[in-house]
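Feature request, filed as a ticket because there's no other form

It would be nice if the structure record came with a short human-readable summary line next to the tokens. Right now we just get the raw output. Example of a typical job, pasted below so the devs can see what we mean:
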Amino acid sequence: MSGKLLLLAVFAAVLVPAALTRWPGTAWPGALTVDLSGPLGGASDWIIDNRDSHPLFLYFFGHISNAVVLAVRGVYLLLLGIGWAGVTAAAALIAWRVAGLRLAVTAAVSFAVCGLLGMWVPTTQTLALMTVAVTVSVALGALLGLAAGLSDRLYRVLRPLLDTMQVLPAFAYLLPVVLIFGIGVPAAVLATVVYAAPPMARLTALGLRDADGGVMEAVASLGATGRQRLLTARLPLARKELLLGLNQTIMMALSMAVIASVIGAGGLGDRVYQALASVDVGAALAAGLPIVLLAVVLDRTTAAAGSGDRARGAGRFRTGRTGWAVAAAAAVLVVAAGRLTDRLTWPDAWTVDIAGPVNRAVDWMTGHLYSGVPLIGGTADWAGHFTGWILDPLRDGLQILPWWSVLLLVAGLALLIGTWRTALTAVLAMAAIGVLGVWKPSLDTLSQVLAAVAVTLVIGFAAGIAAARGARTEALLRPVLDVFQTLPQFVYLIPVVALFGVGRAPAVAAAVVYALPAVVRITTQGLRQVDPAALESARSLGATGGQRLRQVQLPLAGPALLLALNQGVVLVLAVVIIGGLVGGGALGYDVVFGLAQGDLATGLVAGAAIVCLGLMLDRVTQPTERRTGRNRKDA
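Raw output as currently delivered:
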């Protein structure tokens, strides 16, 4: 390791003076930037001028748009025709057949709460959009995954494309589709498809490429054709990966439900977005809770299907087609009863208004906690101190560094846990940010990410250690983490804005809350998977609990802790960008501004810079050994 850093120092001693002679100064050299505003602005103008007349839009994109509108409208009318009782019963019966009675009750209660909150119609709108988007995402992802799983060449081609799609912020997807399809449901559905399809493609390819070699050889020895081997061996062996891909696609599509509301998706997301615009926490909670409940039900149902754990308590209908026939018949009876009694829509008398009490509670907290609290100050004071004492110095410190020193620092960090190839990738990604001409705002975003990651790791590691050492603590944390992990990114902004106001501090606070569950879960799992023999050996030598933690568990769980760091960085970056809506500034603001103004150059350049920033952060926080092992497994 010291040899790598020594060689890097030698390179720096030779290259830095040459760079300073050619490009003096600390800021990124203007001669090394590329102005993309002209080409991208021209492309945007051409799309706008020809959207209503060019054959490409009339006979290709136009048909796609019409098909999406008809599909979403058809599903929406079907859900309305089934009625609230039919939809609730169908969800509960499916959950019962897949995962058991407990989840069936959870599903029924969740859908009933959607109605009680007065959100039944927006819920059906979101379900309709979700159904179409997930269907297309799964189909597209499965086809791409099938191609990548069966062809090494296509796998190598598709992998960087999927990497880019997964790192690119969701807002960046919206601008191109809005230019092509305009504001409305088609743009929202297609942006969701682009965002949600990569997990299905990745996991499908992984499942096909990881098929048991012995089974495949046995099938081939029996004279099966390629198609027969695929249908009878590869796909059945990849069942868990396929269902996990479905689970991840559903969750990512649901997380886009709020973001897509910016471009006219409607449904629950639109209610949340309107509440965010007016800082109406009560209305936001009333619309956000159904999103969380839908996420929990869909996550648990698809996860149970993927694990193969069939329903307990299903009695004699537990297996086979009889149970499904009974469930379908029961759902049909409920639908028929609803139509005969003309109770298809949720009764207005059965709704509960939580917006008023919640807003009164928020007003009280704002009046008593926002500022002026004796001794400890208020939340606004904390936000101001955090901005003034941490965010501002960190941002100014990064921006005052010479550009070449930032590249050297990135290279050094990458070399500490990786190879020269890792370091080169990280440096090129960082240099690309300068070439795009967004060096200063990118460093501003980087400062917010670093501050949020530091807070996330302190809290996450502490909570993960407590959960790993105490079953009761883990049991208390699990429902909290479940809620935090299923809550859409947008929803985090509402309470933090109410408590902290607008600015960079609320964006950081929302990012911390969003990233915490993954860090806590990975830390807990890593500590619990430490070899019991090593712990027993330390205990036999008289080591205390703290000594076993510091000297045995934490060192042996090092790879898991680095993975927690990596995932924390990626998740924090995702929400810091959305923080541009509440005063986070930097690249997030540029993406949001580009979307609001239809400025393709500003939005896409900022989105590309975010991809490069994410790639650099991934390389300097992800050990090469783990990545190499994963690649070998994928190959």
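Something like this underneath would help us a lot:
The mean pLDDT is 79.
Residues 55-99 form the longest helix (45 residues).
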